[in-house]
């Protein structure tokens, strides 16, 4: 496995990174990070439990919210092992196979969340544009089929990632740029040709960005429909039903677009800025989404308070 020339020694361990310059306080930084993970996992599990046990919430809007919670849980649990090892135990090493597996799940759940957010924008458009036909168009059976399609599509789309990365040869460089493994980060360590990885990764990024384009188009039609409503009060009421989803879209897409742009086009990028944006991308959406939906959705809020015996 090792050649005589040290410059061509194949890497058997990758090294992740915490926050450069703050290694001496990683243990203290781990406290808020662990708290955020606990709140995110508890919040999303609560959302899933409430929707599962309350028959009044067995409706398309809440099924999509369940899909969002599952995606957030997947993202949290995928990054949790390496984040804890780095900040709690100061253990930065990770085997290539474990790294490839982690980036598969992170990219898979990221694409799944993107698809769910697109479906939720379509749900809001139908609810506002065709309120009388809404329940007949979006039946529970159709929502279940959409969820299954999203799951299969997301996993199949990123399935080539670990296999194409495994075919590459890694030598000389072993230090990654984040606290977890990402496809675009790992492939840059290769000392063999990574052209296929680059273009397929770019294709996957375009597929995900196409979701954001369709979300924008959906909201253009939503605004057009809302502007056609005569009553100012009814217009505000219709727009208020979209606030939670808009917040979820912004906290998901803003960090991921910034991170992808810095990875692919940034020549003089700040390593600390990239690490912070990457950590925000995986920590904030799973943490904030349950809070936003509990605060802005009355039915969810009342059922959660009831389950927590705070009624």
UniProtKB/TrEMBL annotation:
<comment type="similarity">
    <text>Belongs to the G-protein coupled receptor 1 family.</text>
</comment>
<keyword id="KW-0716">Sensory transduction</keyword>
<keyword id="KW-0297">G-protein coupled receptor</keyword>
<keyword id="KW-0675">Receptor</keyword>
<dbReference type="InterPro" id="IPR050402">
    <property type="entry name" value="OR51/52/56-like"/>
</dbReference>
<keyword id="KW-0812">Transmembrane</keyword>
<dbReference type="Pfam" id="PF13853">
    <property type="entry name" value="7tm_4"/>
</dbReference>
<feature type="transmembrane region" description="Helical">
    <location>
        <begin position="242"/>
        <end position="260"/>
    </location>
</feature>
<dbReference type="InterPro" id="IPR000276">
    <property type="entry name" value="GPCR_Rhodpsn"/>
</dbReference>
<feature type="transmembrane region" description="Helical">
    <location>
        <begin position="143"/>
        <end position="163"/>
    </location>
</feature>
<keyword id="KW-1003">Cell membrane</keyword>
<keyword id="KW-0807">Transducer</keyword>
<dbReference type="InterPro" id="IPR017452">
    <property type="entry name" value="GPCR_Rhodpsn_7TM"/>
</dbReference>
<protein>
    <recommendedName>
        <fullName>Olfactory receptor</fullName>
    </recommendedName>
</protein>
<keyword id="KW-0472">Membrane</keyword>
<feature type="transmembrane region" description="Helical">
    <location>
        <begin position="25"/>
        <end position="50"/>
    </location>
</feature>
<keyword id="KW-1133">Transmembrane helix</keyword>
<feature type="domain" description="G-protein coupled receptors family 1 profile">
    <location>
        <begin position="43"/>
        <end position="293"/>
    </location>
</feature>
<dbReference type="InterPro" id="IPR000725">
    <property type="entry name" value="Olfact_rcpt"/>
</dbReference>
<feature type="transmembrane region" description="Helical">
    <location>
        <begin position="272"/>
        <end position="295"/>
    </location>
</feature>
<keyword id="KW-0552">Olfaction</keyword>
<feature type="transmembrane region" description="Helical">
    <location>
        <begin position="198"/>
        <end position="222"/>
    </location>
</feature>
<comment type="function">
    <text>Putative odorant or sperm cell receptor.</text>
</comment>
């Amino acid at each position: 496995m090792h050649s005589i020339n040290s410059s061509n020694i194949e890497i058997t361990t990758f090294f992740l990174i915490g926050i450069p310059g703050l290694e001496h306080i990683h243990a203290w930084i781990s406290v808020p990070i662990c708290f955020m993970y606990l709140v995110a996992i508890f919040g999303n599990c609560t959302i899933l439990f409430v929707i599962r046990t309350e028959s009044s919430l067995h409706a398309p809007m809440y099924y999509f919210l369940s899909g969002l919670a599952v995606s957030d849980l997947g993202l949290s649990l995928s990054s949790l092992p390496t984040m804890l090892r780095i900040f709690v135990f100061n253990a930065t090493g990770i085997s290539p196979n474990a790294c490839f597996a982690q980036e598969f799940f992170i990219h898979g759940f990221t694409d799944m969340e993107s698809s769910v957010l697109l479906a939720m924008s379509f749900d809001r458009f139908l609810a506002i544009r065709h309120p009388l036909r809404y329940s007949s168009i979006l039946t529970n059976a159709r929502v279940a089929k959409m969820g299954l399609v999203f799951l299969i599509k997301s996993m199949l789309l990123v399935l080539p990632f670990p296999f194409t990365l495994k075919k590459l040869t890694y030598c000389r460089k072993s230090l990654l740029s984040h606290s977890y493994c990402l496809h675009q980060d790992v492939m840059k360590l290769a000392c063999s040709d990574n052209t296929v990885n680059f273009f397929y990764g770019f294709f996957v990024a375009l597929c995900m960005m196409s979701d954001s384009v369709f979300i924008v188009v959906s909201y253009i039609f939503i605004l057009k429909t809302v502007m056609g409503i005569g009553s100012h009060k009814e217009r505000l009421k219709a727009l208020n039903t979209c606030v939670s989803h808009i917040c979820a879209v912004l906290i998901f897409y803003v960090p991921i677009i910034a991170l992808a742009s810095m990875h692919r086009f940034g020549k003089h990028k700040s390593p600390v800025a990239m690490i912070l944006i990457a950590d925000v991308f995986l920590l904030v959406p799973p943490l904030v989404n349950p809070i936003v939906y509990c605060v802005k959705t009355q039915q969810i809020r009342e059922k959660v308070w009831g389950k927590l015996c705070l009624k």
